[in-house]
């Protein structure tokens, strides 16, 4: 809640006018009251961010007004003014909730310094409230990847894009680590000493999201008992993460576009235009191109957000990261709990690598966490995943599987026989009970697979003439 609307209460017309004019010159909205009762009447009707109260006034003094205001609006900043200052009255005023106590006469410079301190204090209070509400957040703030990972391309660009104020649009499936990329951009930016504020656009209705982003005035809607700063104000000077930007309504999209273009907005129920300096990072798990074609997303907003595009690949496209992630999460989750689990078997790693991970990094993280709690074994085996994931144990090389074609079985038998004979096709043909020419014709058909076995298929065959192909099941 920034300081915007101020009430000056003083029975001295000259002093009241002097202070009011100084405040108005500094851009504040100012109301005036000539005594305590008039002040109470005004505060009952509307909300003030700050009050300057004269100590001695007819009908009701400043101390009484202070008590009344603090009962109805604890967040209002109150400064007591008096020409009859004493240590005792200053202590009493502070005990009853006054922020400061100033002695008349005072200069405009003194008032401006006081207002600066009040604004800085209020900003710290607002930021503290926000971060305290986020203490239960469980966001990983670092990447765990293999040295050959495709993610290196993304991370190598983070430092470069972090130095700009340009908007960033991070696209990727759910659970791939889009928020970690966003936080990494913030960490490496020159704004890392300023707030990093996040809002989940998919979690709130249109009206609640509008209030969360832009704030609201007191009485703007039912339940708006106090003026509230939005996320844009909290993030002023820093970075705002708009998570799942594709889920916002056309109305909110229009307001976001205005902030991106003009860096200004109004609170819900307010008329004053507020200016902000905020870097926007947006994330989405949808194809915004398709959403634009469906008229679900504004193309002009997309262009404003997509100044720097970032694509986060799914885990199935960077399987080299799966073993590293599994080991990392095992070490992380077994720490501090009484679990016998110590390591992951090679077969279990193979099973994890074969799985496609529709939930990406989040899914493997949750799986390993579940295993540290539920598995009563020192070694994590592939069998342990059977009831947790649609993961099958790796098939032994000499096993047949329902669903294989005869040609698949024949192909596998040929290559295994060649492997056993060291690539000698004449010897392999004898074992398979076919002619060398038949074997050569079949290998020509499987040519695209030869590189995976590293065999010299020309060795051991000295007759290149064509013959009628024989079947293995003659």
From TrEMBL:
Residue span(s) of domain Response regulatory: 5-119
Protein's UniProt name: Sigma 54 response regulator
PROSITE patterns linked: RESPONSE_REGULATORY, SIGMA54_INTERACT_1, SIGMA54_INTERACT_2, SIGMA54_INTERACT_4
Gene responsible for this protein: atoC_1
Sequence positions bearing 4-aspartylphosphate: 54
The entry's keywords: ATP-binding, Nucleotide-binding, Phosphoprotein, Transcription, Transcription regulation, Two-component regulatory system
Pfam families according to UniProt: AAA_lid_14 (PF25601), HTH_8 (PF02954), Response_reg (PF00072), Sigma54_activat (PF00158)
GO term, biological process aspect, one: regulation of DNA-templated transcription
Domain called Sigma-54 factor interaction: residue spans: 144-373
GO MF annotation terms: ATP binding; sequence-specific DNA binding
Lineage of origin: Bacteria, Pseudomonadati, Planctomycetota, Candidatus Brocadiia, Candidatus Brocadiales
């Amino acid at each position: 809640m920034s300081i915007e609307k101020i009430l000056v209460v003083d029975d001295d017309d000259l002093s009241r006018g002097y202070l009011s004019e100084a405040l108005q010159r500094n851009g504040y909205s100012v109301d005036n009251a000539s005594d305590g009762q008039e002040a109470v009447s005004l505060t009952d009707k509307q909300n003030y961010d700050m009050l300057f109260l004269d100590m001695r006034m007819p009908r009701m003094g400043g101390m009484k007004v202070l008590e009344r205001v603090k009962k109805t609006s604890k967040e209002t900043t109150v400064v007591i003014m008096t020409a009859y200052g004493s240590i005792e009255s200053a202590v009493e005023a502070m005990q009853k909730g006054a922020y400061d106590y100033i002695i008349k006469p005072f200069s405009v410079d003194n008032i401006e310094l006081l207002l600066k301190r009040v604004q800085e204090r209020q900003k710290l209070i607002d930021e503290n409230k926000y971060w305290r509400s986020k203490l239960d957040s469980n966001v990983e703030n670092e990447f765990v990847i293999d040295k050959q990972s495709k993610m290196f391309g993304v991370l190598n660009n983070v430092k470069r894009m972090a130095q700009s104020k340009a908007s960033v649009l991070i696209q990727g499936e759910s659970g791939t680590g889009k928020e970690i990329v966003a936080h990494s951009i913030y960490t490496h930016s020159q704004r890392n000493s300023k707030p990093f504020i996040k809002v989940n656009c998919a979690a709130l209705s249109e009206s609640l999201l509008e209030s969360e982003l832009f704030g609201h005035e007191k009485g703007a809607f039912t339940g708006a008992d106090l003026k509230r700063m939005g996320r844009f104000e909290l993030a002023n000077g820093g970075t705002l993460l708009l998570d799942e930007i594709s889920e916002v309504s056309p109305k909110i999209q229009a307001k976001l576009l205005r902030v991106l273009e003009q860096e200004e907005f109004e609170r819900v129920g307010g008329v004053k235009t507020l200016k902000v300096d905020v870097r926007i990072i947006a994330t989405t798990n949808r194809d915004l191109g398709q959403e634009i074609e469906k008229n679900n997303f504004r193309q002009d907003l997309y262009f404003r957000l997509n100044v720097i595009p970032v694509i986060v690949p799914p885990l199935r496209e960077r399987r080299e990261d799966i073993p590293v992630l599994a080991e990392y999460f095992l070490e992380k989750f077994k720490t501090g709990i009484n679990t016998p689990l110590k390591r992951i078997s090679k077969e279990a790693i193979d099973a994890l690598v074969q799985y496609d991970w529709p939930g990406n990094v989040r899914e493997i993280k949750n799986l390993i966490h579940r295993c540290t709690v539920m598995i009563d074994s020192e070694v994590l085996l592939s069998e342990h995943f059977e009831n947790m994931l649609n993961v099958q144990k790796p098939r032994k090389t000499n096993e047949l599987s329902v669903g294989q074609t005869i040609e698949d079985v024949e192909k596998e038998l040929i290559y295994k026989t060649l492997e056993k004979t060291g690539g000698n096709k004449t010897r392999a043909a004898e074992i398979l009970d076919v002619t060398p020419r038949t074997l050569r014709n079949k290998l020509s058909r499987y040519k695209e697979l030869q590189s995976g076995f590293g065999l010299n298929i020309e060795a051991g065959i000295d007759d290149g003439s064509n013959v009628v192909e024989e079947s293995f099941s003659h």
